[in-house]
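Customer escalation, tier 2.

The customer says the design service returned an amino acid string that "doesn't look like it belongs to this structure." They asked us to rerun it and document both sides in this ticket. The original structure tokens are below, unchanged.
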């Protein structure tokens, strides 16, 4: 395998680095013309389930930019079909679940996955990538709550009313659902690490909708057990959510080596609240990449200043890169972070 540049992994473990590492959520995707060209010939699911295509898309941004990590190209919802929740990915809509999970009976029809049998394409893509990459490869999936939110809502949602109602009205069924999903997440990420992923990210994209008391009672116990299981893998785990300012300490207590912070909070405040026991990742507002170059540089330097000089900061956006982002601005961002 090629020699590894491990700046990103060292930052995850709060070790000194020569310069702040940077990678970008959704760095392999629609802002790149070569990706758009590929998608004219292949569907999103074809790209996710064909190892050679998933590997090719993962590598695309690394050929353009001096990023410090790659993230596997896939989708949070790929494991849904083998666990008994078939879906389709609709362009500009996202996943649409054929039969939403709205009752205890619906929970009972879901099953545990066997990643080597059910998701071999993901694991093969990881193996292919490890033969080529000179930077660490991040594997990922959705966190149990975010998976549950998609399954209960039947897709994306503005207010997640069905999910919130399920938690309050059917707490026992909710706990069974979360326990099953947490076990599936553990199995999937364990298989990714065994295939060669050198770090893992849990996307809890929608957990910020919950009050802290509900998170602590009906999400955090499942997350704690999940993170306890992930410790055996001996790879850094990033715990990311959006709109989670009210949950920051609870997410830290649930687990993870790195806590992802979105753009709604200053990193200086996040580091103060989280303490020295975890690294932080973030947190430039993705829309800054649509601004003039001087504004982009100013805001990137502001994020770096807020992160401070203590080890354990990975530069990233506060959420995924926007499709209309100019390539020149991505290059300028990477150069600004490394140059600082």
């Amino acid at each position: 395998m090629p020699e590894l540049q491990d700046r990103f992994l060292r930052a995850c473990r709060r070790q000194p680095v020569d310069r702040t590492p940077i990678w970008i959520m959704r760095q392999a995707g629609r802002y790149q013309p070569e990706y758009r060209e590929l998608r004219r010939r292949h569907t999103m699911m074809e790209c996710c389930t064909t190892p050679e295509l998933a590997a090719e898309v993962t590598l695309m941004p690394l050929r353009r930019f001096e990023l410090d990590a790659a993230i596997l190209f896939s989708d949070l919802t790929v494991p849904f079909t083998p666990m008994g929740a078939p879906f389709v990915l609709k362009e500009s809509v996202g996943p649409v679940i054929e039969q939403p999970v709205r009752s205890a009976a619906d929970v009972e029809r879901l099953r545990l996955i066997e990643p080597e049998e059910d998701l071999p394409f993901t694991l093969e893509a990881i193996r292919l990538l490890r033969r080529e990459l000179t930077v660490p490869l991040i594997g990922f999936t959705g966190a149990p709550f975010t998976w549950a939110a998609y399954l209960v809502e039947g897709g994306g949602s503005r207010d997640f009313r069905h999910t919130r109602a399920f938690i309050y009205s059917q707490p026992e069924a909710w706990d069974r659902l979360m326990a099953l999903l947490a076990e599936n997440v553990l199995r999937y990420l364990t298989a990714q690490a065994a295939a060669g992923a050198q770090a893992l990210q849990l996307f809890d994209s929608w957990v910020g909708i919950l009050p802290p008391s509900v998170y602590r009672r009906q999400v955090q116990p499942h997350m704690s057990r999940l993170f306890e299981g992930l410790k055996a893998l001996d790879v850094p785990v990033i715990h990311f959510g959006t709109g989670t300012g009210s949950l920051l300490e609870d997410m830290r207590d649930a687990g993870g080596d790195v806590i992802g912070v979105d753009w709604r909070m200053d990193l200086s405040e996040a580091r103060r609240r989280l303490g020295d026991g975890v690294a932080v990742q973030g947190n430039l507002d993705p829309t800054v990449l649509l601004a003039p170059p001087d504004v982009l540089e100013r805001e990137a330097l502001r994020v770096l200043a807020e992160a401070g000089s203590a080890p354990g900061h990975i530069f990233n956006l506060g959420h995924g890169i926007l499709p209309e982002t100019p390539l020149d601005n991505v290059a300028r961002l990477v150069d600004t972070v490394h140059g600082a």
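Tier 2 assessment: The sequence is consistent with the input. The chain has one domain: 7-74+106-142+176-339. The radius of gyration is 19 Å. Sent an explanation to the customer and offered a walkthrough call.
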